[in-house]
Design brief:
Elements (H helix, E strand, L loop, with lengths): L1 E13 L2 E15 L3 H4 L9 H15 L4 H15 L3 E10 L2 E6 L2 E9 L4 E9 L4 E14 L24 E11 L7 H17 L11 H15 L3 E15 L14 E16 L2
Antiparallel strand pairs: 1-2, 2-3, 3-6, 4-5, 6-7, 7-8, 8-9, 9-10
Helix pairs in contact: 4-5
Family: Belongs to the uricase family.
Pathway: Purine metabolism; urate degradation; (S)-allantoin from urate: step 1/3
GO molecular function, one term: urate oxidase activity
């Protein structure tokens, strides 16, 4: 049991310069006894309102140096403070505020919300067990307008999809990875590096791109690049929900439409997923 959607903004001031972290936290506990379920005995139950207040107090006292560290702080607090807690799990996701720039100059106290993917993390711990930390990015919308195709697939009497060697590749990406033994990691730096790997593997070189024979192959390329460059990552999961676009037939309008005007296919849409880890 626990408290979901604990939303707050943490403002940190260093003179005139301000820093913001707006997050949503879900904190769940499992107690050493199920007596509140079986007997109606609430003597060990930490109220969810108390859980919410603890999260806010930790944000006030410790700040949010990184999402992962804040999730670790939540786990540590419940494990060290309450002997009746057998398991704790903290999920934290961030609102994508970025510092506003005017003529290239960073503003001291103004920000803009840029929805270019939502950062999240998760930490969980069992009593007398290791602390496990996950991190990720979700709702990251990506598109490339060429250098993608889908050919040579299995066909039978139900197949109507034509083969394509040049199509738009567009999708919404979810990526979640786990760390090994957590040491003094620079979680912010690692997250940015993994995001760069995702973009690089999806798009290819900026001057020419890289051909994608399928959504599945693109997912695997993302995972392989992350594992090759980020040694702290042990397992990486990628889900790519793809959006299809159909070319509008403009013959009745007396026009030739050479893939210049397209409409998205709202539903159903395809999806592919893969989890890849080190040996």
């Amino acid at each position: 049991y626990g408290k979901n959607t604990i939303k707050f903004l943490r403002l940190h001031r260093e003179g005139k310069k301000h820093f913001v972290k707006e997050v949503e936290v879900c904190a769940h506990l499992r107690l050493t006894s199920p007596q509140e379920y079986l007997e109606g005995n609430n003597s060990l139950v930490i109220p969810t309102d108390t859980i919410k207040n603890i999260v806010l107090v930790l944000a006030k006292k410790n700040g949010i140096p990184s999402l992962e560290q804040f999730a670790i702080d939540i786990c540590n607090h419940f494990m060290t403070t309450f002997c009746q807690v057998a398991y704790v799990k903290a999920y934290v996701q961030e609102v994508p505020w970025q510092r506003l720039h005017e003529d290239g100059v960073p503003h001291v106290h103004s920000f803009i919300c840029v929805p270019d993917g939502i950062r999240f993390c998760e930490a969980e711990q069992c009593r007398n067990g290791p602390l496990i930390v996950f991190a990720g990015i979700k709702d990251l919308k990506l598109m490339k307008t060429t250098q993608s195709g889908f050919e040579g697939f299995y066909k039978n009497e139900h197949t109507t999809l034509p083969e394509r060697h040049d199509r738009i590749l567009c999708g919404e990406l979810f990526c979640k990875w786990s760390y090994g033994e957590c040491k003094d990691f620079d979680f912010d730096c690692i997250w940015k590096k993994i995001r760069e790997c995702i973009l690089e593997a999806f798009a290819g070189p900026p001057d020419c791109g890289e051909y994608s024979p399928s959504y599945q192959k693109t997912v695997n390329c993302i995972q392989m690049l992350v594992l090759s460059r980020v040694s702290q990552v042990q397992v990486i999961e990628v889900v790519l929900n793809n959006t299809f676009y159909n070319v509008v037939d403009m013959k009745n309008l007396g026009l030739t439409n050479d893939k210049e005007v397209l409409v998205p296919v709202e539903a159903p849409y395809g999806s592919c997923a893969c989890t890849l880890g080190r040996k």
